[in-house]
Each structure stands twice: as C-alpha cells, then as structure tokens.
Amino acid sequence: MQQEFLGDWVNLLSHQRAAHQIITDLFTPQTIMQSETHRKIISWYIRFDLFAGMMSGGKTVLGRDWFSACADFYKRQARDKPNDFGALFEDMFATSRLIATDIALLLASRNTGEKSEEDFTREVQELHTQMEDFNHKLTTRFTDPSCFVKTFPKAPPPHVEDIEHIVDFRDPNFCLSGELFSMNYILIDFWAMQLMFRLQLSTTLSTPDELQEIALKKCKMFEAVEYSGQGPPGAILGFQASLGIACLLLPKEKKFTDWSRHKFALMEQHGYVSRPSFYLINLPNDTHSYIYPASLRKRMSDLWGVDVTNWWLPNDEDYPPVIRALRDFINFRAESAAKEPDAKDADVRDMAGIFKTMSLERDMPDHVTDMMQGDGGWFEGDMYESSPDQHYS
Q1: What is the pLDDT of residues 124-148, one digit of tens each?
Q2: 289 near 335, Cβ under 8 Å?
Q3: Cα 204 from chain centroid (whole Å)
Q4: 273 sits in which H/E element
C-alpha cells in the first residue's frame, strides 16, 4: 500500500501484477477463502484490482469468480453469526466490492464494444435495481437513535470556526457510533459507488441536484467522523479516495472551494498513526503520510480557477516539509516511469478510465462537463473500498 499512500500509482501496479501472479499460482477462488490470513490477502488484492480497473477503464485482472467467492463466503459467515457485527460488515464490504466489479466489467464491455446497446441498457437497469436494493439494506439496518454519534468533542465552537461549514455534521441521527462505527465506511464507499455509477453509466438515472445531494452527504460524513472523536486513529484517512469526486460535484462557489482545499490539506497533513496491518513509509513520531497525486491537484486547479498544483492552501500555509520531500521523491519516480510507460500504467497515471468513460449530458453542471472533456483524468478511482482495515469493537 505504500505506493498508494505516496500518490505513486503507476509504480504500485508493478506490485499488483506480481501479487496477481503469486495468488493465481498458489490458490483458486475457493481455496484462498479457507484461512483468515489468505482472506485478508485476497481482500487487499481485490481492492487494488478494482482500483486499477476503474482507473484505466479496463477490466479487473482477476475474474469475477474470485470476487463472487469472497462475497459468498462472507454472506454465509453473516448468516451463521447473526449477532456478530464484524461478520455483518465483512458481508456488506464484500457485497459492495462485487457490485463494483460488475460496474467495472460493464464499463469495460462498453469501451471494447463487446455488448450490444440493448444488452448494455438492460444490464445498467439490473445494476441500478441491485444498488437500490443494497441501499435500502444499508439505510434500514440501524435506525435506533441510540446507534448514532450525539456529541462532537473535536469540533471547534461554531462562533470561532475559520471555515464556513457546508453541511450539518452535528446531525444526531447520521454518523454511527461505537461498535457500529465501521458502518460509516461502508456507507461512504457506497455513496461514492452511486456517484460513479450514475455519472458513467446513465445520466438519466439522476439529476444534477441528486448528484450534488449525494456529494454533500459524503462531505457530511467526512466531518462527522473527523469531529466525532471515535474510530481508529487517523479515521478520516479511510475517506481519502472518495473525497475527490465529492468535491468535483459541489457547487462552484468560494465557500465550497475553500472547504475542499482545507480538507485536502488536512488529509495530507493528518497522516496515519502506525498500525501493523499497513505497510507504509515511516515518518517522524510514528506517523505516516498520504499524498494526493499531481494529476489530481492539476484537475482541481482547473476546476476551481485557483492554482493548487503546489499546495492546497494559499502561500504554502501549513505545508509540512516532510510532504515536500516525499513529493520530490515521487515526482522523480514518476518521471522515470514515464519514459517507457506500459499502456495500462499510462492510463492509470492519467486517470483515463474516469474521464474517457464518463458521458455527461446537457443536464450536468457546466464545470463538471468541462472537467470531463479534458485529456486523461484526475480522480482516485478506488472509491469502492476506500476504507482502512476494519476495526470492530
């Protein structure tokens, strides 16, 4: 995961390819689910396979049977352990990943012309129904008011807040608390999947206002988690992948731009508190850094009309020296990789799969349409399983 957290996406693909070779040589979709360690390994790999497929606009490397085997296993586990929240959340994550896989495969089939227009339209509607059913399951599973965060001890008092809040993160019936906290990651990943599905597959499924409503809901969850004081250290880093698409769909007004810039900066400043389950580059004081790639900063500069190619905030405000040094290192590696790029590596680097496959019609906001018509792309495509390792109480 080190390359992802450093924004070094192209070099991460060489690790993904090597992992694929090892996994498929040693296991089948069924045998890899036979031990906890192997299940963690395949969950890790699936995350990056979906990421690379969506980023490049191509298929996943693993066949659908691997994703289906994971979903089937966790569904049985949830059925056998009805009172185990960990089993329930694993089931929901696996179901979400399988839906994401079907979206990736459908997008790839459109790009290669493998399906007729009639078959493509039918499968879009089937996926839409499947997602609506899953959305109902997510939104009705926990409804008791006692399940939600009621206080936000890390929030600044309203009268001294520097940045105007764009959402009501203090909603007492929104962010799940305690042993249900992991559900917040499932929800925000699903909302990101909704946005990508509706943008890429069928703009007739949503109006611009509906897309903006989902984007604001994602921003609301970001702040609710940020200020709740709950969850593992660095809890907001689980939202790093889906923050970008939410900010893309926010109104093009200064208060929304300022909010977005501060959140992107916060994400890079925040870092990861050390956790053994992550293989990250060690930084001072046992923290780890997450760095957004240069292509994202360029795209957001074009969107906002403000130059954030160097840093998110004006005059390099709160720009940590360690991030400067790491960016220089990643830029050097990216320049070396760009000399003879593999076709898929280049598509991932330019985020081609996001922009080249999106077909935004006249109902989309002008600033979104303009962004989509550029060369390449910008958005970190691992929106489908952006959460960190699940921590169950």
Answers
A1: 999 999 999 999 999 999 999 999 9
A2: no
A3: 23
A4: strand 272-273
